[in-house]
Amino acid sequence: MALPILNNASLHELTVPSTGKTYNYRPYLVKEEKILLQAKESNDDKLMMKSLTKLIESCVEDINTNELTTFDVEYIFLTLRGKSSGEIIKVGYGCSHCEAANDVEVNLANIKIANENGASTATIQLTPDITLDLGHVKYNKMLNEMNHKKNKNETDEVFKLVKNCIISVNTKEERAIFADEPVQDQDAFIDSLSSAQFQKITDFITNGPAVVYEDNIICTSCKEEFKIELRGMASFF
pLDDT value at position 129? Predict the structure, then answer.
């Protein structure tokens, strides 16, 4: 006999945080989860990011992943994860009082987008004559610039985020689209910023939307209550 094809799953709806657009999606299946697990085991960040893009394209109808920000991808993946493999996951977390390890049950249905209503773009003043237009980083833009490295350099990652969130450099006479400028000119511009100017850009990134889970936990060791906060997709693996 021919083997049956299982799990013609019903569709669900999700809303992309950055755009407010609603899409139909299905839970992912073993064939897709296997690709995800293989990418995770490779310890290759770029391969993992590519796998997430393919997963979203397979499971979410008519979505253009080029439009998605990094927090969109995190939110969509965790939504798919909850419907596909169960909404309860266990995460290890150290007590803030005694540092004892606690196994915390996280309900993915309670994950929220912090600063969801924050501005999607911003204009910051660098000097009386120069402003920057900033926007939240697109996931594919970060993916295209990544190298296949097992060990990430945090400083390099911060500078990549800063470069990728700059839309334009504006003077009274002209508006230069940052991505259209030569890479060496982009680097030279960022290197010429003062610490205070650089901080204005990183503040925009830090205060932007992010996937967050918060809860108060009773430590299994010292019995004191402490707060947990998980941010970003890596916290939920």
Answer: 95
Q: Structure pTM?
A: 0.79
Three-state SS string over the chain comes to: CCCCCCCCCCCEEEECCCCCCEEEECCCCHHHHHHHHHHHHCCCHHHHHHHHHHHHHHHECCCCHHHCEHHHHHHHHHHHHHHHHCCEEEEEEECCCCCCEEEEEEEHHHCEEECCCCCCEEEEEEECCEEEEEECCEHHHHHHHCCCCCCCCHHHHHHHHHHHHEEEEECCCCEEEHHHCCHHHHHHHHHCCCHHHHHHHHHHHHCCCEEEEEEEEECCCCCCEEEEEEECHHHHC
Length of the chain: 237
Which amino acid is residue 182, in one-letter code?
Answer: P
56: left (phi over 0), alpha (psi -120 to 50) or beta: alpha
The distance from CA 211 to its chain's CA centroid, rounded to whole angstroms, is 7
Q: 82: how many CB neighbours lie within 10 A of its CB?
A: 18
Give the Cα-Cα-Cα angle 35, 39, 45 (nearest 5 degrees): 145
Q: Rounded distance, CA 225 to CA 214, Å?
A: 13
- Kindly state the tokens that stand for 141: 């833009």
Sign, CA dihedral 56-60-63-69, equals negative
Share of residues in the chain with pLDDT > 90 (%): 51
